[in-house]
Amino acid sequence: MVEVELAIDQIAIVSPAEATATVRCMLGPVLRGARFDRIRDSAEAIDLELAKILAYRRSVEELGPVHTALVTLRGVGVQLLVSATPRSGWQVIQGTNPPPRPSCERRPVVVDHLDGVQAVIGPPSGPGASDESWRELEAELGVELPGDFKELTGLYAPILIRHSITLCSPATTACNLGVYMRETVVAYEDCEFSEENFPGFREPLGFGAPDGLIPVIPTAHGESVFLARTDTRYGWCIVVYVGADGEFYRYDLTFAEWFRRYLQGEDMAGPNSGQDFPNPIMLMDLHVPSGEKPVERFGPVRPS
């Protein structure tokens, strides 16, 4: 019985018993430890174990349908695996997942919305953020920030998108996230807001961690994006202040989903706020060597 399928894009033979491959999940999710015993439309026998899955430069335990990753395959038959070509198409290997493990041993699947983000602004380009830099910032805030926010920020920040929205990093001098948070909290504390400014909230929220609005993204057009703790299933929500409206809008979404939908032009900053982002979109990586200036570049061309 076929439970899982991986389509192979590029294959690199490491040894007679090991290969690394860029793959797409065609049927799944595929769990680490899955065993593949056949190649679709082939009589050749294989016996390969999925030993490792790297998605967005992180080791994960499973790969969901349509997602791509770099994987390590070990066992018998690696020499039968071939890279895709325009003539041959993608080779598909088939197999079964390992027996279920206790839920306490399972790690989360790859954050689904990162594929949508990458479709707009391309592959990860940031210098990364160490666990220590996050621990220091969270110790100052008194709260642990959402995992998908830290993952996405670590992959791309610091970066300017379309001279419009900036992702800040806790680990760089340029566009430092901690500095931005402190300065923004001070600025908003000087403003006088009432219940009318907070439609959809039981009461106005304060500013700053751990229980108030935590600023995370500045924009160039009068919007500020905040994280706020909630009792929803996510534990957090996104709150966007729109200066033109003088109102705070709440979105009960994960940060990754909110950011993906924002980039895809949905109304994620109040009514009728969706933007038609250029294709391709202009980007500027803000972490550059001392003495150099950031250079504009463009993201991938998106399918029309």
Give your account of this protein's structure.
By secondary structure, the chain is α+β, with helices and mostly antiparallel strands. It has two domains: 4-105, Translation factors (Elongation Factor Tu (Ef-tu), domain 3), CATH 2.40.30; 113-298, SMI1/KNR4-like (3-Layer(aba) Sandwich). Helices cover 17% and strands 32% of the residues. It has five helices and 17 strands. The chain has helices at residues 113-121, 131-141, 147-156, 177-189, 255-263; strands at 4-15, 18-27, 30-31, 35-39, 45-55, 58-59, 62-63, 68-76, 91-96, 159-161, 165-167, 214-218, 223-229, 236-242, 247-251, 282-285, 296-298. Strands 1-2-8-5-4-9 form a six-stranded antiparallel β-barrel. Helix 1 packs parallel to helix 5. The chain is elongated. Residues 102-111 have low confidence and may be disordered.
